[in-house]
Specification:
The structure is a homodimer.
Chain A (H helix, E strand, L loop, with lengths): L2 E2 L14 H12 L3 E5 L5 E5 H17 L7 E5 L4 H12 L3 E4 L6 H11 L1 E7 L3 H5 L10 E5 L14 E3 H7 L8 E2 L4 E7 L7 E6 H14 L7 E4 L6 H4 L1 H8 L2 E4 L8 H10 L4 E4 L1 H12 L11 E4 L6 H11 L2 E4 L11 E2 L4 H6 L2 H9 L2 E3 L4 E5 L14 E6 L13 H4 L6 E9 L4 E7 L4 E3 L2 E3 L1 H9 L4 E11 L3 E10 L8 H9 L10 E4 L13 H7 L3 H4 L1
Parallel strand pairs in A: 2-13, 4-5, 4-6, 5-10, 6-7, 7-8, 12-13, 12-14, 14-15, 15-16, 26-27
Antiparallel strand pairs in A: 2-3, 10-11, 17-18, 18-22, 19-20, 20-21, 21-22, 23-24, 25-26
Helix pairs in contact in A: 1-9, 2-3, 2-6, 7-9, 10-11, 11-12
């Protein structure tokens, strides 16, 4: 779309929207605000915005001291810690690019990302050194490593060299740093997104993109100095869903969950309650498990006012209701991707809908992806590229554009199929918008099941399964069928206390919402459903595993 | 400050931060949100974001139909009405510049603004036609007038020509408009600021400036769809202190107060209560009068959760306490100017200060100008231009810079004295910052009183006077004195029920905070204190009126 120049007075065109200004202003205003970081041994480390800022400046000086320059790409493989938070500002603040490396990627994919982005140094948590060692032979451009650890140099066993210790560097560095006035279009960070096919694709966020996303998120979610943000989402996923940046804009208290997995959820739930968390985010499986833990607590925690952002997939009503009934915390669904810097919708209610709708209708509304945040353009298009009305039923592909949505993959031919000529990102999701502005995803375009020429929505069916009180997790995929081309298969993980549930009960439940021909031929109860490195259902893997299920019979 | 370019990936550099996107997204998300406008007869007109947006599009088509083009400057002289709100978007949205004209300016100043900005058309409320007629002979560039009225063309008596009627134009226009994709640095609006000396100075706001200010304001003030914003501040003053723009970003309900003066405050206070207003803004005198009205109400209104922004000068503690005790509304002090697009500070409390400080200390804190909003750079400099520490005592001139702070006056040699080379705005106010980031103004640099080589702060003394329970308004100025060079004079308006107060009581009150030599030689009780067209104390006028007070004796 052509840009039209209006009257030009040029009275303020030079102020740069860079992340340095975000952190400088946050520290000026909220120097005493607390930051908490969970150590490997489960203890909590506490310091303040002001303390962190001094270390960010030392970090910037350190990076310069080992020869890192404006424009250099530096990889980071780290858990959710205060050091990772310091790196979020100290590294891009001195003008380098923070390439967030997903520690769960296969070595060849990780090596591809490192080589594609031209990383020179890697900053790595000590217990993740093995991940880096595994890709050394594949990455010739690497010239050094910075290890985050409390140990002495002599205690570190590794083939990596040369190595520097994060704390050593900081202790030797000056604590005052003269930040450069970075052009707002300079790259702040890069995140690579791994699709189900092809090589990882590079999404590069500029300082301006990040600044505007933080501002939008703080505004649309009313995040401020009274909030306590619990950073559960890995900080290598889309900048931790942008929460640390929005949090500092608002001056909120931050808690970093450290190195955690599903086995740590009891401990993390205790932190959630004890630190009086008001904002967190995770995929439904995490909150489902937390809810189970809370249900078993003798004293019900009061989380009134807490807003828990649930992303990755639609939260079941049982989850939202459960949290509300048990704790008064609100689960808020959000939808996004690496290309859109996570937050593109937030499912918040409007005062008039709260008056007009019944309780049941409100819960159903809350399952939708929510309102497209201000700042983003959206188009729903049909197969011919024609824009569809926002009528609450016309479903088509969802296209997004906005001040922080990428319009290209960096140096990648996959750009062509994923972006329109006018710079819209093709999400690959199908859905519709209603007249109130709520988005509803109806399917992943590539996940749709085609049975005898008719479509079956795998997402609708998963959501229906998840709404059954016995179901903890569910996946529905299309499996090759000699007669019908594809037929659905459902995999289900049952909740601990509901192992007695039968396939017939599940079929009955589905038949309330689906036609008989749409019900899966096979329903399998499993202990675990395969997931990708970022926690999404790994449907490619499921399809491979069960590819002969409907041909063998 | 030199701009440093970091790594460039150019994955999103084209999305324009223009006000068209603000309103488009607001209407997409909150089409049913209500807008209320107070008619001349006191009745309330109600419609929705969606209704307003259709009229904005009709307006844009109308303006094109009479020959207005991208880049043209169009003057607006209007009260706080829904039409004025429509103009805020329809006019700059089609690429023209909205020049906000202060209807209280003297004709020669108004003519200067019109000629300096190159205005072609003026949009004017019918009852303000006389204001425009008075400057016609001085403004040769004007080619047409649009009258906002419900009347027919034949009923309008005026020497203006050609004239168009706002409603006629809209009713003939198409309701769909294809907004241009305006470059974000295009000028959105111009406001001229009138100092105590010199010609009015032009501050031109770009679309980007306005977009970012709206976003910041919504974020820092947590304005959202649940809020009800009462627009009291004239919309020709710094875009109504930017509230209408922040309001639509958040999707809030808007109420426009129409054509009002201090005599209408009883009616407006009723609207405040009945419409459950949560956000408003005004100078202290307005809220003081409202408080008096509320005190006399039989049933105390419950305004819990309301945040009333008080600007122009420091709110007395009695005002803040009074509102809190009577209604549970919070008065929040803010500081700003035309050059900074109004909001540069907001006096919000931090959770740790609420724990640590006594009630008395918290009230005193709330009198300060507040926390510099995120996004703004601030410098406090001494006479030699050296930056002072943020130690809560080192007072110097306050300099500001940021994404929406102007760095020049448009085509004006007065730029040189008001802006530094690096683009900081010299506020002309003296003050200090504390380590918590709260700003305290100690004086207007030009208002300081120099008595026998020593300084007396007129602002401190006014604040002290205002804290006396009998005082409604107060002004302190320096008057020429043959021996001491200058001596202070205090003018006081007493509150209705406190007319018995004596000068001696006032002197006694002042002596608690001031040295004997600082107490004004003369204290005069008056019915009214002269104010400028924007409602500030007109100290120039007071000095002229009393210039011989201390020489005659």
């Amino acid at each position: 779309m052509k840009v039209i120049k209006g009257f030009q007075a040029d009275l303020n065109v030079n102020y740069q929207l860079n992340v340095i200004n975000l952190i400088k202003h946050a520290v000026r205003n909220y120097s005493r605000q607390e930051i908490v970081s969970r150590n490997l041994d489960g203890t909590l480390f506490r310091y303040t915005y002001s303390d962190a800022y001094k270390r960010m400046q030392r970090l910037a000086n350190s990076l310069e001291s080992i020869g890192i320059k404006v424009g250099d790409r530096i990889g980071v493989i780290a858990w959710n810690t205060c050091q990772h938070f310091e790196i979020y500002f100290g590294l891009p603040g001195m003008g380098a690019v923070m390439v967030s490396l997903n520690l769960r990627l296969a070595p060849q994919d990780l090596a591809y990302v490192i080589n594609h982005s031209g990383i020179k140094y890697i900053i790595v948590d000590e217990d993740l050194i093995k991940v880096v060692e595994s890709i050394i032979p594949l990455c010739k451009g690497l010239i050094g490593y910075i290890i985050i650890t409390d140990k002495h140099l002599s205690e570190i066993e590794t083939i990596l060299k040369p190595i520097y210790l994060y704390e050593d560097l900081l202790s030797k560095a000056l604590f005052n740093y003269d930040w450069p006035n970075l052009d707002e279009n300079s790259v702040y960070a890069a995140c690579y997104t791994t699709g189900t096919t092809g090589k990882p694709k590079g999404v590069y966020y500029s300082h301006r993109n990040v600044y505007l996303q933080a501002l939008m998120f703080a505004a649309q979610f009313s995040m401020n100095v009274n909030d306590v943000i619990f950073q559960l989402v890995p900080m290598f996923h889309v900048l931790g869903w942008s929460k640390p940046l929005a949090a500092i804009y608002g001056g909120a208290k931050l808690i970093f969950a450290g190195n955690w997995n599903m086995n740590d959820l009891k401990e993390l739930t205790n932190i959630l309650v004890q630190e009086k968390v008001t904002v967190s985010a995770a995929v439904p499986a995490v909150f489902m498990a937390m809810l189970e833990i809370i249900r078993k607590m003798k004293q019900k925690p009061d989380l009134t006012g807490a807003r828990l952002i649930c992303g990755g997939s639609e939260p079941p009503i049982a989850l939202m209701r459960g949290f509300w009934d048990e704790t008064r915390a609100e689960i808020i669904h959000s939808y996004g991707s690496t290309e859109t810097m996570a937050i593109t919708t937030l499912n918040t209610l409007k005062p008039w809908l709260e008056k007009e709708l019944s309780e049941e209708e409100l819960w159903n509304l809350k399952k939708k992806q929510g309102i497209i945040v201000s700042g983003l353009d959206i188009k729903i298009i049909d197969k011919n590229g024609i824009e569809l009305p926002h009528d609450g039923k016309s479903s088509g592909e969802i296209l997004l554009k906005g001040p922080w949505v990428t319009e290209n993959y960096f140096n990648d031919p996959q750009t062509e199929e994923s972006f329109t000529e006018s710079g819209y990102f093709r999400t690959g999701d199908a859905g519709y918008l209603d007249s109130e502005g709520y988005l509803k995803i109806t399917d992943r375009l590539k996940d749709v099941i085609k049975s005898g020429g008719e479509w079956i929505s795998s997402i609708d069916m998963e959501n229906s399964l998840m709404s059954h009180s016995s179901v903890l997790e569910a996946a529905v995929v299309g499996i090759f069928h000699p007669k019908w081309d594809e037929r659905p298969l459902a995999l289900i993980v049952l909740r601990e206390d509901f192992k007695f549930t039968t396939k017939e009960q599940i079929r009955e439940h589905l038949s309330k919402s689906f036609a008989k021909w749409q019900i899966p031929d096979e329903i399998l109860f499993v202990n675990k459903i395969p997931r990708t490195s970022v926690g999404k259902l790994d449907k490619k893997m499921i399809r491979i595993e069960y590819r002969e299920l409907y041909t063998k019979n």
